[in-house]
Amino acid sequence: MNTFIKKHNLIQTHDTVVLAVSGGPDSLALLHYFHHLKRHDNLKLIVASVDHGLRGDESKQDLEYVESLAHQWNIEFKGTSVDVSSYKKANGLGTQEAARELRYQFFARVMEEVNADKLAFGHHGDDQAETMLMQFTRSVMPESIHGMPVKRPFATGSIIRPFLCLEKQDLIDYCSSHKLQPRFDPSNEQTDYTRNSVRQHIMPFMKSMNPKLHEHMQHMSERVTEDRTFIENEAKRVLDQVVLSDGKGGSAQFLKSSFQKYPLALQRKSFHLILNYLYGNQIEEISYLHEEMFFHLLQEQKPNASLDFPQGLKVIRAYDEITFTFSSTKGNSAFSKTLYIGQQVSLPDGSIISLEAGECFSEQGKHVYVCDSNHVTLPLIVRTRKPGDRMILRGMNGSKKVKDIFIDEKIPAQLRDTWPLVTDQEGRILWLAGLKKGEGCTGDPSGTWLRLQYKK
């Protein structure tokens, strides 16, 4: 065990360590071990214990027992009683989840009060194996199968688990050899909770097949963590090609062609990093099915397609452009505005189209349109497209559907219904703003000319 602690650099001299102690054999062994370790490493210890109020007087007596041991061994004690039943009802949680949240909230407060460096738990190798088996049954995504970390940041310092190299029986034997009298929680024998079922029905069989199961699972957890850290760092390079905005609830945008140049493993990891960014790391509803849907979207031949993800997130493909967004274009209704000479109209997206008249205008760029006033009926109309819209393009015989122009120009489907076009009073489409120009000019430069300008 000392080798395991040194390997993972779990404890440093003069550390302030909060010990999470319930009174069971695991945490009692933890308390005793650190009590003897503190003299060697000059540690400052604080015992923290929580009465969850789920077993009446029994759980209260557990708390009092831990407090008496702390005082007996001259260790500072901090304890609390929490109302799990009320908390789980108020937050819509299960009993175990509610108890865990309240427990960790208390531990964080204690760490902040004493400015602790470490919070130590008595989790052992069998706990690790149970955790990973449960993760295997719930998810096929590698990101979800990693076990409990040996060390991770928490509150003012880190959570450490120095007993992950041991099995449950090691700790029971330790308590026996040091004449410790642990308390036992009878709820651990009930199979109402998934972990208890795994512990009683699956673990004995697994350990009969491999008595070193706890060691194998711990090594796997460490390797998975190392590999995942490497891949995550590499995937962050992929995110350099992604435009991320507004954090949780925001959006992400990138080019499919650039994204697909990376190995598939990095694409997968980048996909999940994007979701972590947009969901704020709260993505319990995302499964491997969403991952498969996303990669099918990248591969399919249709230039325009979209997916609906949990909590209103849409994944939109528009030709080579991929967009993740919580905003919807459904609320953008059609518009129709009258435009007079010398005036301008403002569009819902903030862009402006203006109209002026004069004897001679130059027509430079796609955002300016010039036409002969003798061939149009004023005032002009700026509107969104309608079913069946057609326009005659300059230099073209016959008309073309506006829908087909959008397709030819690879305009994303979600932009087409709000794209402005300009007509005269007779309905003739003069200009698909910033995109295609219709006929309306003569070869005679004399007379009054009209100049439209589109400012996005």
TrEMBL record:
Its main location: cytoplasm. It catalyses: cytidine(34) in tRNA(Ile2) + L-lysine + ATP = lysidine(34) in tRNA(Ile2) + AMP + diphosphate + H(+). It comes from the Bacteria. The keyword Cell inner membrane does not apply. Ligates lysine onto the cytidine present at position 34 of the AUA codon-specific tRNA(Ile) that contains the anticodon CAU, in an ATP-dependent manner. Cytidine is converted to lysidine, thus changing the amino acid specificity of the tRNA from methionine to isoleucine. The N-terminal region contains the highly conserved SGGXDS motif, predicted to be a P-loop motif involved in ATP binding. Belongs to the tRNA(Ile)-lysidine synthase family. GO terms for molecular function: tRNA(Ile)-lysidine synthase activity. Residues 380-454 form the Lysidine-tRNA(Ile) synthetase C-terminal domain. SUPFAM superfamilies: Adenine nucleotide alpha hydrolases-like, MesJ substrate recognition domain-like, PheT/TilS domain. InterPro entries: Lysidine-tRNA-synth_C, Rossmann-like_a/b/a_fold, TilS/TtcA_N, tRNA_Ile_lys_synt, tRNA_Ile_lys_synt_N. It is found in: Cytoplasm. Its EC number is 6.3.4.19. This is tRNA(Ile)-lysidine synthase. Keywords: ATP-binding, Cytoplasm, Ligase, Nucleotide-binding, tRNA processing. It comes from Halobacillus campisalis. ATP binds at S22, G23, G24, P25, D26, S27.
